[in-house]
Design brief:
Largest sheet: 5 strands, antiparallel
Number of domains: 2
Structural class: alpha+beta
Strand order of the largest sheet: 4-3-2-1-5
Radius of gyration: 22 Å
Number of strands: 5
Strand content: 15-25%
Order of helices and strands: HHHHEEEEEH
Length: 180
């Protein structure tokens, strides 16, 4: 009976992540395909990828950069639209833009006496503009979640970590399970 239980659990460990990944990918592809109403599965996804790439190519042109800046300023000034647009823009820039924000992994000491630490990303090295000259901002992603917390701590509590940002993010998001 123990062997049967072990085989079941091993099968579960293999199939659940595989099935969940396939389901999520299928759902995304189906949703995108339903927007375009193509008969060929995956054609909508391909059109989306090509469109995004074409827009990126066009927007990187010197002549269109002015238009892009104009649209950016216009959306950043409109009430309510500003809140959504700037939040999404800043989040995208944090991961894929020229100003990546999650590229400085740090260890934050919460309690030296109890040896308690958190791992996060230094997002702002100076908070002088908001009245905290001796503080830094650290973003702490949460495990198994797409959220996190921003904490403000003294510089002395932060120690840089010499590990790739992607590896640290995988470590945090996996709850400490993913290790390279």
């Amino acid at each position: 009976m123990r062997k049967l239980t072990r085989y079941f659990l091993e099968g579960l460990l293999l199939l659940v992540p595989l099935a969940a990944t396939i389901y999520v990918l299928y759902s995304i592809l189906s949703k995108i395909d339903s927007i375009f109403k193509f008969e060929i599965p995956g054609a909508g996804f391909l059109v989306t990828i090509l469109t995004i790439t074409a827009v990126g190519f066009i927007s990187s042109n010197i002549l269109t950069k002015r238009l892009v800046r104009f649209i950016d300023r216009m959306f950043a000034r409109l009430p309510f639209v500003k809140m959504i647009y700037t939040a999404v823009r800043d989040l995208m820039n944090a991961f894929v833009g020229d100003r990546k924000s999650f590229n400085k992994p740090v260890l934050v000491t919460l309690s030296a006496a109890n040896n308690i630490h958190l791992i996060g990303f230094l997002t702002r090295e100076s908070l002088e503009n908001i009245g905290f000259a001796d503080k830094v901002a650290v973003y702490l992603p949460q495990a198994y979640n797409f959220s996190g917390n921003l904490i403000i701590v003294s510089r002395e509590q932060v120690t840089p970590i010499s590990v790739e940002s992607g590896d640290i993010m995988a470590f945090i998001v996996s709850g400490g399970v993913a290790v390279k």
